[in-house]
């Protein structure tokens, strides 16, 4: 028991109280030196010890919390960093698959482009995966189980392509394996995007989408850099085995990571029992509809979808022209994409450091004009104008072949940051998945539009003369979205700062809590 101790001499008569200057109360405990007047003086002497012990407990708890945050940050960097890197490294097996279909299976350019974009159909269902990820928890977790599920499907599909010969040689089986692969990739991407958005909002870390783009570009750089070399030295199925091994490593890391260690919200068992799965799904669908109905989200979303869908894609025809007509080496095509990924990585760093301050409407307008201009670089290669300038086909394709594709990828970065900032809480997976699905659907529409355009212009494996008109049509279509540039916001949404109502000293030493032990009130301070 701790007794209150008077700091006055008990043998002095009470004097009338005078109005003296009152000293500021001290936050440290008062130690009485008149031990003979207090029969329980030992209790008084124990008060500093009690304060020190309490402060030690508080410091220990703060240290443990800081240590848990550091562990969660390291796990987040490893999990999502590797996930986005593997997502960018998917160009490594796809380069082998494209060459296999163009050279070994001798597919028509339009057929090759149809196969490439039909394989992206599972990406269209990303909103469904996002709603399921937000509404249905597996062992109390909403992201990592779906990440592991997607990795497992990818390991299965690429292992089939590597180990089962019929999956490589028969086109329907090949398409089925690729569909399974993209199904797993889409589920994993939805879980990763939602995890990054939720983790960034929970810990108030901005710019995580930029770092995700950096990891994505780094994976693309390495995949394209070694893809062409490996394709010359080994068969495609060996490259499929290598990629399956990387996916297996990602799968092991996903199984070994607990979502609660990342510090994001967990769903309790009582809440799960009160709400059925159907109620959760209906709620997520309703929240998604409300979020999309907001003009700050719907108008930029419609613009980016339209700017992609209205430009006909001729990538399959250009690829067949480079490999069959110009006889470009696979290493040249791989290195051209490496240079493009370096450009994307540099642009992402510059955006995160400097270009984020530029008006979004102005930045997207300049990027769209650059994208339309970069489409004309393929016209220079088709008309062989580069040879008149003394530039060989290999050098020109190496430097400028993949520039238009990279500019189109970079255009998505400001929109990803915008939607991540505007995303309502609890709707991260649904909204990011809907965005990815809409972008994928617009890309598929652009690809089918390109197939129709190539067929109308008479582009075949032996006649590429119609590519000139096709590229000019691409250029004009890419300039059309500038007409509706006013629908984009002027700048990115910024988090409102709190008003400065506290004094400088009060902000330095802010009372953040009070611990009550018996009748002793011990305050702890935190340096702001």
UniProtKB/TrEMBL annotation:
<feature type="transmembrane region" description="Helical">
    <location>
        <begin position="431"/>
        <end position="454"/>
    </location>
</feature>
<feature type="transmembrane region" description="Helical">
    <location>
        <begin position="211"/>
        <end position="231"/>
    </location>
</feature>
<keyword id="KW-1133">Transmembrane helix</keyword>
<keyword id="KW-0812">Transmembrane</keyword>
<feature type="transmembrane region" description="Helical">
    <location>
        <begin position="363"/>
        <end position="383"/>
    </location>
</feature>
<dbReference type="InterPro" id="IPR039309">
    <property type="entry name" value="BT1"/>
</dbReference>
<feature type="transmembrane region" description="Helical">
    <location>
        <begin position="331"/>
        <end position="351"/>
    </location>
</feature>
<dbReference type="Pfam" id="PF03092">
    <property type="entry name" value="BT1"/>
</dbReference>
<feature type="transmembrane region" description="Helical">
    <location>
        <begin position="146"/>
        <end position="167"/>
    </location>
</feature>
<dbReference type="GO" id="GO:0016020">
    <property type="term" value="C:membrane"/>
</dbReference>
<feature type="transmembrane region" description="Helical">
    <location>
        <begin position="466"/>
        <end position="485"/>
    </location>
</feature>
<feature type="transmembrane region" description="Helical">
    <location>
        <begin position="395"/>
        <end position="419"/>
    </location>
</feature>
<protein>
    <submittedName>
        <fullName>Uncharacterized protein</fullName>
    </submittedName>
</protein>
<keyword id="KW-0472">Membrane</keyword>
<feature type="transmembrane region" description="Helical">
    <location>
        <begin position="301"/>
        <end position="319"/>
    </location>
</feature>
<comment type="similarity">
    <text>Belongs to the major facilitator superfamily. Folate-biopterin transporter (TC 2.A.71) family.</text>
</comment>
<dbReference type="InterPro" id="IPR004324">
    <property type="entry name" value="FBT"/>
</dbReference>
<dbReference type="InterPro" id="IPR036259">
    <property type="entry name" value="MFS_trans_sf"/>
</dbReference>
<keyword id="KW-0813">Transport</keyword>
